[in-house]
Amino acid sequence: MATEVENTPSVPAAEEKKEEVAEVEATPVVEESAEKAVEEVKEAPKEAAPAKEPAPKKPNVFKQNFEKDVVYLYQFARTTSLPSLSPYVLKVETWLRLSGLKYENVDHKFKLYSKKGQLPFVEVNGQQICDSSNIIKELSQKFEKDIDVGLNNEQKTISHAMISMVENHLTFVIMAWRAKNPGEMVNGYKINFQQSLGSKIPNAILNFLFKVNYGHRASKKVKAQGIGVHKPEEIVEMGKEDLKALSELLADKPFFFGDEPTLLDVVVFSSTAQIYFISDDAKYALKEFIVEQCANLVGHVSRIKERCYPDWDEICNNLELNPHLPKPEPEVKENKEGADTEKAAEEEKESDKELVKEKVDEKIDENKEKEVAAE
């Protein structure tokens, strides 16, 4: 009897071999692809965490809590003769007042100097500006306060030449006299170092130290400039020539270029004030010359002073740095002890009133009882 057997279809031997080879070859390819994918995942850049915003840098200035657009002028202490013994400081402050900018003076306390080691310097909006000429130039541009805007080209040329003469020649003539006569300088400007510095050291010692230190440093400066190598009488003559040139240019005008002051007026004032406002206790040939031979320059100094420094006397008498600023109202502190005492007195008064009322009421009741008993 024949049995039906279901035969499974067979694969030829050659084909089986091919499939085995294919499987063997496919395995490393798959593994290699997998490894590659893992590596790509590893190498894929991670999402960067959001960077923290750097903390704002503190401005590199002495006045950290500055007010916006307020100019902080670092300068020397006041004197009893004029606001500043430095022509360059007086120049900047006079320009600030003339331009109407809000400013505040800061005493450098003999330790606060600009990055260049100079005085004066200013700080405005966290920025430091050095050198009096740069200060005025940058502030003029920043706040649009050019007081020379009305000058023509010829006047600007004259102004530039005369400012150069004053700052690079006349100022050193004045410094040469001070370097040679520091004692006369102290007497002439009535300098009280003890008061100006707030020091307890006797004035005699402070005066001596000033004479030695200032005389030496100022002499080095004027010699380096060139004027200091000349004899004192020769230097005086140079100063007279400068003053004569300024006097002739001013003539009978109120200011050098008309009815309104310009930068030249400010610069000339800052130097001629050093000459004119020195006391007669000091014998100074240039003061005698300006009073006797240059009366119009004396008038010029007075006009700038009246226009820019209505508080001149307050500055010089009280040595105040900022009399132009409104003074804060004094704080009114509550006297707690006084308030408590007053309250206690009021309470005692009320208590006395109640006691009196009680006594009166008792007396009335007592009288009523007596009347009832009598009936």
Automatic annotation (TrEMBL):
GO terms for cellular component: cytoplasm. The lineage of its organism: Eukaryota, Metazoa, Ecdysozoa, Arthropoda, Hexapoda. InterPro entries: FAX/IsoI-like, Glutathione-S-Trfase_C_sf, Glutathione_S-Trfase, Metaxin_GST, Mito_Protein_Transport_Metaxin, Thioredoxin-like_fold, Thioredoxin-like_sf. It comes from Chironomus riparius. This is Failed axon connections. It comes from the Eukaryota. Coiled coil: none annotated. Residues 239-304 form the Metaxin glutathione S-transferase domain. Residues 33-56, 326-375 have a biased composition (Basic and acidic residues). Residues 87-178 form the Thioredoxin-like fold domain. Residues 1-60, 321-375 are annotated as: Disordered. Belongs to the FAX family.
